[in-house]
Write a structure and sequence with these properties.
Largest sheet: 6 strands, parallel
Shape: globular
Order of helices and strands: EHEHHEEHEHEHEHEHHEHH
Low-confidence stretches: none
Strand content: 5-15%
Distance between the termini: 25 Å
Helix content: 25-40%
Number of domains: 1
CATH topology: TIM Barrel
Structural class: alpha/beta
CATH superfamily: Metal-dependent hydrolases
Radius of gyration: 18 Å
Mean pLDDT: 97
Bound molecules: zinc ion
């Protein structure tokens, strides 16, 4: 089962009616169906732009996506419960939020969004919020942030550390009880960038049983920003963290992509890329989906 742990397709244009067929986007349901087992859909809205309307905007968008998937259930279904993963032939969409500013210090808001179907939470975007410090700013995980992490683990929401700064990442390691993910990142040792993980971070993530999704974002890949460079990031990450702890998080519809990938239609190039890096078939399956599948099976809630 192939899994992509990050895209912004559902938040790219709040004016669209459906994600069924969107040729101008990096992905749509028609391109996901039969190819991807689980697509993570992140809702990202700039907290400085939306301000107080942020929770309302996310709420509307999440309700829209859930209904849109249900209307197109021949192609995709919302993934809400662990038991659903027993049907490996289905394509699922997993809904979550990138940046915890909308929680605004209220655990009730977190609980309400869980009820709406939120199943992963990016603790911060690049700014610092009530939970912790984002990549572009200072600050560690707050006391409230630690409570949020504990509540996510209790409810069955996957904790995503993708945009945390280094200090908050370190604090997170001290507080997590369950595996967490870094949904879209690359390796700092291959191309230094604030959003890329250091080798030390990769090792600590693996220690906790977590998984990092290597992204197609051109600016994190660096060098010639091509497929060969993407292969180098994946190979390095596996070398440092181990084969059980690396996956893919495309960042489709969120940024400029590595040269050679123009959208979900090019996902099939990954297998050949990994083979070229010397990965055997079972290792390729782990990177392209099985590692994130393990996280989903461990963290997602069971239907009551
Ligand atoms: Zn992001």
């Amino acid at each position: 089962m192939y899994i992509d742990a990050h895209c912004d397709s559902a938040a790219r244009d709040i004016g669209i009616k459906s994600l069924k067929k969107m040729p101008a986007f990096h992905l749509d349901y028609e391109r996901l169906a039969g190819q991807i087992g689980v697509q993570f859909f992140a809702f990202f809205f700039d907290e400085k732009k939306f301000g107080e309307s942020l929770p309302g905007q996310i709420n509307c968008s999440m309700n829209w996506l859930r209904a849109d998937m249900e209307r197109n259930d021949d192609l995709i279904m919302p993934l809400l419960w662990r038991e659903q993963l027993e049907n490996p032939l289905q394509t699922f969409g997993l809904m979550g939020i990138e940046g915890g500013a909308f929680i605004n210090g209220s655990m009730r808001i977190l609980d309400a969004f869980f009820q709406q179907g939120m199943r992963f939470l990016g603790l911060t975007w690049n700014y610092t919020n009530c939970i912790g410090g984002g990549a572009l700013e200072e600050g560690g995980l707050t006391v409230f942030g630690r409570e949020v992490v504990a509540r996510c683990e209790e409810l069955g929401i996957i904790v995503d550390a993708a945009h945390l700064n280094r200090q908050s990442f370190g604090d997170l390691l001290q507080t997590v009880q369950k595996p967490f993910i870094v949904s879209h990142t690359c390796c700092d040792a291959v191309h230094p960038h604030l959003r890329n993980l250091t080798d030390e971070q990769l090792r600590c993530l693996a220690d906790k049983g977590g998984v990092a999704g290597i992204t197609f974002a051109r600016k994190f890949i660096g060098g010639a920003e091509n497929m060969e460079m993407l292969g180098r990031h994946i190979a390095h990450a596996v070398n440092v963290a181990g084969i059980e702890h690396i996956g893919i998080g495309s960042d489709f519809d969120g940024t400029d992509l590595v040269y050679g990938i123009e959208g979900m239609q090019d996902w099939k190039k990954l297998d050949a890329l990994l083979e070229k890096q010397g990965f055997k078939s079972s290792a390729r399956e782990k990177i392209l989906g099985d590692n994130f599948l393990r996280i989903l099976k461990e963290i997602l809630p069971q239907e009551e």
